[in-house]
Write a structure and sequence with these properties.
D-glucose:sodium symporter activity, 73% helix, 0% strand, Na/Glc_symporter_sf
Length: 346
């Protein structure tokens, strides 16, 4: 399951949020630097305050069995009224920021992608605003009901992983295979949702006579959804060739883009980033697998070397901690060196 879960996730290609952040940077080098820093800060720097509090709580409350209550108990034990109030305000602000963002996002999707497109395409803007507000209230009610009847946050997270696992492959492969289209993604999402829901209902009501473990649901969903979206891909027409050709000229993706690459080259696009006569932005050089995969491995060394190395240092394991941290620093230096060199075109 671990060999599958890391790519069978909605953020397997970075997700819309990170892709928008990368697209907003100055150039590819700045985009890479921003993601390396985000990865380091998010997975190496940010977790350690939580880890330290958790480790101290083991000594302060050795008989505590409800581990979810350790953090609030540490807050009330060691923070005075001022700092406690400040921390509570920060936690509530972060919570409300996440909640209102998802409510507005869900309402926007519903109004613009479903209601406006298929149900009322020519209504006034005021009408769509009111529909969005009512949809937001409906989503709040649905979320409250889910929270009311849920007994485990871990179980909800596992269900979320199962729910989208069948679509992770198509989200990733759409960058490497020209044949994937919008119907492939829609089929993958619908099949993943249906498969995960039915398997969980089967566990609840005993339809299959077998209780599926989390990893079984994950693997079954990936396999069944994969068969469905592959079939839909070959049964539906590909994306318009002009759009594919324009995307290829701009990005030069790797993988299975042979027909589109031939079409783009046949239209007279230069290979090495020269602008054409109409003043379009120069296409990127051809994609080479060596440097991206090298950077991928180096980033793994940077993240895990830093994260585990700091842990070893805190536990007093100085030789192993120093070695891991040194490996992380060496990986960071190599990443910086690669970014200083011009991108190869072959």
């Amino acid at each position: 399951a671990l060999a599958v879960q890391w790519w069978s996730w909605k953020y397997s290609d970075g997700g819309g949020v990170l892709i928008q952040r990368m697209s907003a940077t100055k150039d590819e080098r700045h985009s890479t630097l921003s993601m390396v820093w985000f990865t380091f800060g998010n997975y190496v720097v940010r977790p350690w305050p939580w880890f330290v509090v958790a480790l101290i709580s083991l000594a302060v409350f050795p008989d505590l069995t409800d581990h979810k209550s350790a953090y609030p108990m540490m807050m009330t034990r060691f923070l005075g009224p001022g700092l406690l109030g400040l921390l509570m305000a920060g936690i509530l602000a972060a919570f409300m920021s996440t909640v209102d963002t998802h409510i507005n996002l869900a309402s926007s999707y519903f109004v613009n992608d479903i209601y406006r497109r298929f149900l009322r395409p020519r209504a006034a803007e005021r009408h769509y605003v009111w529909v969005g507000r009512l949809a937001g209230v409906a989503f709040i009610v649905i979320g409250a009901l889910i929270a009311l009847f849920s007994t485990s946050i871990v179980r909800l997270f596992e269900f979320l992983l199962q729910l989208i696992s069948g679509a992770g492959a198509v989200f990733l492969l759409r960058w490497f295979w020209w044949r994937i289209n919008a119907w492939s993604e829609i089929a993958a999402m619908a099949a993943s949702l249906l498969t995960a829901t039915l398997l969980n209902l089967s566990n609840r009501f005993g339809w299959a006579g077998h209780v599926f473990a989390t990893w079984e649901i994950l693997l079954l969903n990936v396999g069944l959804s994969g068969a469905i979206w592959l079939a839909v891909t070959f049964l539906t027409p590909p994306t318009d060739s002009a759009h594919l050709s324009a995307f290829y000229r701009r990005v030069r993706p790797g993988g299975f883009w042979g027909p589109i690459a031939a079409m783009a080259d046949a239209r007279g696009e230069r290979e090495r980033g020269e602008a054409d006569d109409e003043g379009e932005e120069a296409p990127a050089p051809r994609w080479s697998a060596r440097r991206p995969f090298e950077s991928f491995l180096l980033t793994l060394v940077l993240v895990y070397g830093g994260l585990i190395g700091v842990g070893h240092l805190l536990y007093g394991k100085l030789p192993s901690g120093a070695l891991l941290c040194a490996a992380g620093l060496a990986a960071a230096a190599r990443i910086a060196w690669n970014l200083r060199r011009p991108r190869s075109g072959a």
